[in-house]
């Protein structure tokens, strides 16, 4: 795919999705971090239901630690892998207090050193909480990048690096959310909604659905 076509794709997505943003509910970088850790292999809707109750009683590292493991598990037990996630959240809360004064750090290296935080989660925090022009590659971004031909790659890291090079500068800050939302609602995993797609004529997918 040439750069002119990529530019047109992102221009159209930006018009179709005028307010690209995460669908996770949060009010601080710490709340976003907790929500993103919980969101692995879970839906944003399911995470929001859990965090609505959790954040009403605990929304700082200190207050979440005060819940203890069993207390925290009660709030997140509806979420996939909740036992592991609860243990990781308590560990990262301790790390934030011990090493960062209770604040979420603004560097990839420091974020990835936190329990339960990998590259994708770190990228989401850097982009969404701190406004860095970084693209986190989740299943939706990976699928859309490969299927459309925008940035094909066999691994998440390969796709991320290609997107970093090829996404037009003016769209880079919001590209992550544009691709996620396009993948979540139009370019879905099974039976993509090609007839309703604003980039259908630019997309290089060779098995487009007709309806």
Could you give a short account of the major beta sheet? none
Beta-strand content: under 5%
Named at the architecture level, the CATH assignment of the largest domain is Orthogonal Bundle
CATH topology category name of the largest domain: Endonuclease III, domain 1
What gross morphology would you assign? elongated
The number of helical segments is 10
Can you tell me the CATH superfamily of the largest domain? Hypothetical protein, domain 2
Series of secondary-structure elements, N-terminal to C-terminal = HHHHHHHHHH
CATH class of the largest domain: Mainly Alpha
Kindly provide the radius of gyration, computed on alpha-carbon positions and rounded to a whole number of angstroms.
18 Å
Q: What is the overall pLDDT average?
A: 95
Share of residues in helices: 55-70%
Which regions are unreliable across 5 or more consecutive residues at pLDDT < 50?
Answer: none
Distance between the termini: 25 Å
Tally of individual domains: 2
Structural class: mainly alpha
Q: What is the β-strand count?
A: 0
Task: Describe the protein's architecture and organization.
This protein has 211 residues and is mainly α. The chain has helices spanning 3-16, 29-39, 44-57, 61-76, 82-100, 108-112, 119-129, 139-148, 156-166, 172-185.
Question: What is the topology?
Answer:
Layout: H1 3-16, H2 29-39, H3 44-57, H4 61-76, H5 82-100, H6 108-112, H7 119-129, H8 139-148, H9 156-166, H10 172-185
């Amino acid at each position: 795919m040439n750069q002119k076509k990529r530019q047109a794709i992102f221009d159209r997505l930006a018009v179709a999705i005028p307010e690209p943003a995460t669908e996770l509910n949060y009010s601080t970088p710490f709340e976003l971090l907790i929500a993103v850790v919980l969101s692995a292999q879970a839906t944003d809707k399911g995470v929001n239901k859990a965090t609505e109750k959790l954040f009403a009683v605990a929304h700082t590292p200190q207050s979440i630690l005060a819940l203890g493991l069993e207390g925290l598990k009660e709030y997140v037990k509806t979420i996939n892998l909740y036992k592991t996630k609860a243990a990781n959240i308590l560990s990262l809360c301790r790390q934030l207090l011990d090493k960062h004064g209770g604040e979420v750090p603004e560097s990839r290296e420091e974020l990835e050193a936190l329990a339960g935080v990998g590259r994708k989660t770190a990228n989401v925090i850097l982009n969404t909480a701190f406004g860095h022009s970084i693209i986190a590659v989740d299943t939706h971004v990976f699928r859309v990048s490969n299927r459309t031909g925008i940035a094909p790659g066999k691994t998440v890291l390969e796709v991320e690096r290609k997107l970093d090079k090829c996404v037009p500068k003016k769209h880079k800050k919001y590209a992550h959310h544009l691709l996620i939302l396009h993948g979540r609602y139009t370019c879905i995993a099974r039976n993509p909604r090609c007839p309703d797609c604003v980039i259908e004529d630019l997309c290089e997918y060779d098995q487009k659905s007709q309806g």
